[in-house]
């Protein structure tokens, strides 16, 4: 099955411009934050104190971005709900 | 894995809202629509008028998918997401399997012989002939449903399983991948649609005999194991469907999982996509989808149901008549539609993978994303299949039981159940339900692939749009009145 298994997630996959490399597994990332998150998620036991603090910081920043996503998503859901409600009022019989 | 502080409340809200949304959506859509399936020789479905305009019904289905994707985005707790798809329950050991394997092979081989024999000598009436009932109500509908709802039993009941021991004279060329199986699946669908296999038992017997001849010669050339793994269309389709099922053999033990959750690929600590969970069968590839050929097969399983749904509707038959009226041979029209539509679905899916990699700052290739997200299509295919064949199977199940209990005599008085109208509403629930589980599988997959939760959310959007397209097409098709395919009936 060589052709089948020759894909997915080689560390050198599509590396152009990705300069932040994980020391443990060699996977490359486009930003330092992504590398910090990757190390926190995939190598939690290999983090030193500074890295752990960095991970907490990036995680908290992302939490704020996710809260903004949730508010926007809620807005879209409300629009969808009332949009369909009115469409049904007008067109369904 | 880190604990998500805000995960619990958002998760609870998300789950409650998703369930409520689904209930409301299905309730709104539950107006009479008729299912359609390829074996029109056996079905007599009729369509009721929709009280909701069709475009609104389709739009609501699409909106339900989009909304559920947004709601899934609310769940950002990695541990919770992983807990669902990693849950397993050990059910037992290997002894049962060996016993069942020998018996299953004998039963399968006996059924195969009976199908060919009764197809030739039995009454040439589809509704009473053993061959037609067993192949379409039993195999195409019942066995396939059992495969994704319970577990893949085809390796045990495969009538040709003795061939798997054949050594073969040449090694299977690896560069062919599983493309031969894809071609075989499309060919079988074309044969099912365009030849009278569902109406004339003799033709069906010839087709089954042809399949056996091809399988025997293929196994003799490349070896039985390689043939079943890469080229046998039935074994491949059922293996893919079986991946959806809650039960599977894993390392010699029968294990239960949440249905559909074995589709989520496992990711190694270095972030590469692997699959630790084997199928428990030596020489088999453990991953549900492991290359673009497998992506194509997953897409084909979704497309073939859409296609056979389309050609058996009044609108589809009228469209084919219109094209053929311009001088194109009807069989070529069917083949072009089958292959062209498949190519459209496939390109749309690969395009989604490309768009997804462009939208987020990732080093993963579009190919990796396509391969990782393709398994979620299998559960969509299972939902479509259930919508197309569940009512068909239930209404013909008395005939199937009669045929199986007395294979050598045609039933004097075949029983076909007439189902109440609300059954057609279930079809909408099956299509939407399959898509909703697929959304969750895609969500879990994204959390496996990406370190950033925002990346995981945003990577799914293109795939969700493609899924909305597939749903819209399928919901539209099951709402159309059924007819005999043009030029074939």
Describe the structure.
With 93 residues, chain A is mainly α. Chain A contains three helices and two strands. Chain A has one domain. The radius of gyration of chain A is 21 Å and the shape is elongated. The N terminus of chain A is likely disordered. By secondary structure, chain B is mainly alpha-helical. Chain B has one domain. Helix content of chain B is 64%, strand content 4%. The N and C termini of chain B lie far apart (59 Å). The N terminus of chain B is likely disordered. At the A-B interface, helix 1, strand 2, helix 2 and helix 3 of A face helix 1, helix 2, strand 5, helix 14 and helix 17 of B.
SSE topology sketch:
The complex is a heterodimer of chains A (93) and B (489).
Chain A: H1 2-5, E1 20-21, E2 28-29, H2 32-42, H3 49-91
Antiparallel strand pairs in A: 1-2
Helix pairs in contact in A: 2-3
Chain B: H1 7-29, H2 54-74, H3 78-86, E1 88-92, H4 95-121, H5 130-149, H6 154-157, H7 179-194, H8 201-222, H9 224-230, H10 233-242, E2 247-250, E3 253-257, E4 266-267, E5 273-274, H11 292-311, H12 314-325, H13 330-359, H14 366-373, H15 375-405, H16 423-449, H17 453-479
Antiparallel strand pairs in B: 1-3, 2-3, 4-5
Helix pairs in contact in B: 1-2, 2-16, 2-17, 3-16, 4-5, 4-8, 5-10, 5-15, 7-10, 7-11, 7-13, 8-9, 11-13, 11-15, 11-17, 13-14, 13-17, 15-16, 16-17
